[in-house]
Q: What sequence folds into this?
């Protein structure tokens, strides 16, 4: 009996401190960088802070002034942020680049490192391999996928490998040629998944990070429905399934993934829009909740996030409704590392909108916080 009382007394004296530390950790502010198009009010890359205790976004603060720093991604081992930039020259020719920035861990100030050609036209996506030795870029306009070496200091080298593809799709306006739209790493870091909106192919590329080279896998791709227009993809947290969002027909494809062979097997296709919807809409981003139980997809035009439950054993999805994004044309959204918040970037209404995530159902509810920012394209939380 005495032992039980002592244990209870210890628990009473230690638990409050533990709870206090946990609460303090949960309530610490989260920060994010936002890439933008600078054709309107935006001037470059911005820093935004999320007060997790109050559920409020801060006013964006410009940290780098440059033209069209759109899609962003982190170096996996260093405090370095990379951005793709669409920079037409005086004659209108696309001279897309990839730029690297050293990030001050205390102030989050960005210091330019260097910039290299993206290896193609219309750079729209950049991914860094787990070793930090290669940057892979998807170039939308000419449909190329390029790999650039990264040195020990995080500096980018010129493209070492550029793959050019062929093909068309049934949509004469959007699928007249290949249009690479993403370059997603598989969990092993050995393969790159690149969705080609122009040819309705989900390409699988082998990555040699040490040499920064890419080669097509055998088989080289999986196909979606003609005219679907695959755009972005995300792996399940268990690494067994790939989810591809299709821009042109507002659907999601579920594939089973073989990590050994680098192959994709179709599981199901599901709409991202409510039943009976007649809105003209185009999917943009897809993201998996950190717990692996929920998946979200953005609809531009319907201006919503579609919410799905995920069956981990089969990969199949179950629709759980939609929520308005609080703006127009949601180009991108990001889930914070804890899985408690979602921030949506509405490109055509120039705002970021914050949502709470209901942890048991995945439902999203507006937090009542929205801030103005010109043409947001990509949101990256600082996880350091």
A:
């Amino acid at each position: 009996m005495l032992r039980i009382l002592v244990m209870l007394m210890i628990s009473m004296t230690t638990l409050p401190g533990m709870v206090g530390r946990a609460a303090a950790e949960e309530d610490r502010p989260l920060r994010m960088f936002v890439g933008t198009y600078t054709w309107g009010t935006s001037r470059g890359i911005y820093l935004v802070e999320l007060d997790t205790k109050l559920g409020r976004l801060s006013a964006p603060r410009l940290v780098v002034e440059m033209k069209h720093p759109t899609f962003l991604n982190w170096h996996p081992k260093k405090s370095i942020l990379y951005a793709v930039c669409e920079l037409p020259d005086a004659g209108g020719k696309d001279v897309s680049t990839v730029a690297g920035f050293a990030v001050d861990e205390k102030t989050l100030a960005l210091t330019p490192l260097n910039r290299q050609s993206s290896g193609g036209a219309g750079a729209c996506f950049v991914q860094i391999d787990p070793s930090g030795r290669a940057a892979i870029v998807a170039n939308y306009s000419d449909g190329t996928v390029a790999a650039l070496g990264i040195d020990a200091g995080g500096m980018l080298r010129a493209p070492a490998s550029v793959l050019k593809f062929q093909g068309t799709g049934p949509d004469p306006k959007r699928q007249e040629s290949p249009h690479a739209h993403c370059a997603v790493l598989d969990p092993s870091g050995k393969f790159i998944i690149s969705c080609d909106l122009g040819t309705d192919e989900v390409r699988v590329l082998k990555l040699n990070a040490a040499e920064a080279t890419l080669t097509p896998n055998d088989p080289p791709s999986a196909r979606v429905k003609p005219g679907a227009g695959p755009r972005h993809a995300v792996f399940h947290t268990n690494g067994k399934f790939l989810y591809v969002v299709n821009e042109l027909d507002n659907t999601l494809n579920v594939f089973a993934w073989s990590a050994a062979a680098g192959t994709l097997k179709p599981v199901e296709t599901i709409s991202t829009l409510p039943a009976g919807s007649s809105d003209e809409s185009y999917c943009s981003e897809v993201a998996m909740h950190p717990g692996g139980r929920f998946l979200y997809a953005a609809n531009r035009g319907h201006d919503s996030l579609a919410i799905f439950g995920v069956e981990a054993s089969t990969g199949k999805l179950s629709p759980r409704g939609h929520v308005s994004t609080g703006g127009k044309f949601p180009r991108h959204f990001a889930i914070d590392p804890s899985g408690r918040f979602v921030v949506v970037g509405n490109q055509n209404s120039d705002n970021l909108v914050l949502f709470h995530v209901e942890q048991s159902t995945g439902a999203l509810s507006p937090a009542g916080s929205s801030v103005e920012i010109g043409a947001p394209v990509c949101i990256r939380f600082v996880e350091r």
In short: Residues 1-23 have pLDDT under 50 and may be disordered.
